[in-house]
Amino acid sequence: MLKLGIVGLPNVGKSTLFNALTSAGADAANYPFCTVEPNVGMVEVPDPRVDLLAEKVQPQRVQRATVQFVDIAGLVEGASEGEGLGNQFLANIRDTDAVVHVVRCFDDDDVVHVMGGVDPARDREIINLELALSDLGVVEKRLEKAKKSARGNDRDALAELGLLERLNTALGEGKPARVVEANDEEQKILRSYNLLTSKPVLYLANVAESDLPEGDNAHVRALRAAVESSGERADIVPISSKIESELAELPAEERTEFLSSLGLTEPGLHTLIRAGYKLLGLQVYFTAGEKEVRAWEIPVGAKGPEAAGVIHSDFERGFIRAETVGWEDFVKTGSVKAAKEQGLMRSEGKEYVVKDGDILLFRFNV
Ligand code: GDP
């Protein structure tokens, strides 16, 4: 399950967005392994392909992919030193897959800006600096330890030292760990530190209703310029959290009309989830049985056994082959059965690179 942390300065629209995104909510009872906390919300990934599969197969159960949003409040200037609610909140970011950094890009005199005025470049920098400083604390401790061990010619410590020194310099300059170069071995070490600034990030520009549908204004352009000049290749997704919250309150049948009155074709939630999948290089494949039609999340490039392993590790270990119907063949023939009859079901082996939307049935040894 994709887990996205929502960060940003106070009063930029995080909670408004979080509440809107999670209001439809996935039924928590279906996810007994997930902690239910007020700042954690689960959303089913909207996917018309799942609807079509379910319509054709008429299964007893439909299980969509899910995304968990975590509203990380309390990040203010000085948070890394324990200001505001400080470090406790930074810790919440550690177990997310990626960060959605909300930046205020709307003008509204009625909404106080904690830093005095709307300035997306400055806001972005404040948050990024707090995250970098928090990571710097972690890196400094590790560096001290590695230096001691390296004196004893500990090989692992020596290998780590170079990486830690580069991280130390970058973070000390307020740069994120993401931009630090690391070879494959160092990447592995880096992952084990679980630094906040090594997580993939996307910027959510919270724009005014009048900026839709393009979501472009001077603040968004300033944010884009700041992101580009820092060398970060992060996406900027413009969304109006106010519109999202109004949308969430409407009955389902009125939403399409409301969206089209704004020139939009889909809710911001869909745009955001797609951006999150792209950011993390994720895609889905489907299983389609009479009991259950289900979407499974896998990394782009995953081969048959890895895809099978998402269902159960036994499937991965005992993988023999995957009976596969490509999404286009499914649509063309109208059903898995028809695709099979027309010879469009392929038998794929261990080296098969699974494609987005593939319908798979695994054969495996137990
Ligand atoms: P948070 O502190 O970042 O969680 O911010 P909130 O979501 O609580 O929003 C702070 C204030 O800004 C609230 O009064 C919201 O109604 C308002 N607000 C949030 N998003 C928008 C927006 O897109 N446009 C306008 N005009 N106001 C917004």
From TrEMBL:
Record organism: Longimicrobium terrae
Keywords assigned: ATP-binding, Magnesium, Metal-binding, Nucleotide-binding
Entries under InterPro entries matching the protein: ATPase_YchF/OLA1, Beta-grasp_dom_sf, G_OBG, GTP-bd, P-loop_NTPase, TGS, TGS-like, TGS-like_dom_sf
SUPFAM superfamilies (UniProt xref): P-loop containing nucleoside triphosphate hydrolases, TGS-like
Domain of life: Bacteria
Family indicated by similarity: Belongs to the TRAFAC class OBG-HflX-like GTPase superfamily. OBG GTPase family. YchF/OLA1 subfamily.
Protein name: Ribosome-binding ATPase YchF
Pfam families given in the database record: MMR_HSR1, YchF-GTPase_C
Record-linked CDD domains: TGS_YchF_OLA1 (cd04867), YchF (cd01900)
